[in-house]
Amino acid sequence: MNFTKAYSSYPIIIYHGYYQRRIGCFSAGKKGMYIDTDGDMNACPFCHKKTGHVLDSNFDQNLEVLKSEGCHTYHMN
Q1: Are 41 and 51 in contact (CB under 8 A)?
Q2: Residue 25 near residue 71, CB atoms below 8 Å
Q3: DSSP 5
Q4: Domain boundaries, the chain
Q5: CA–CA separation, 22 vs 20, rounded Å?
Q6: Which of 5, 10, 18, 62 sits in a 20 to 30 Å window from 39, CA-based?
Q7: In what side-by-side order are the strands of the sheet with 52-53?
Q8: pTM here?
């Protein structure tokens, strides 16, 4: 819809999961992560696999686990 003249008056539509389902997770602790309202660390907003709490003393270790495991929902081999 973003590139069709018939819809040029519409707002831009973005669905982040579109490419993630084809390529794999863009975040997964490498370029970003998702911190939920409880302060738990997740690979991205689409996969809710808690890796630890953002205020844990072992934050760096939790971040390394997040990077190595990636996003279980959109993991591509």
Answers
A1: yes
A2: yes
A3: G
A4: 33-77
A5: 5
A6: 18
A7: 34-35, 40-42, 52-53
A8: 0.59
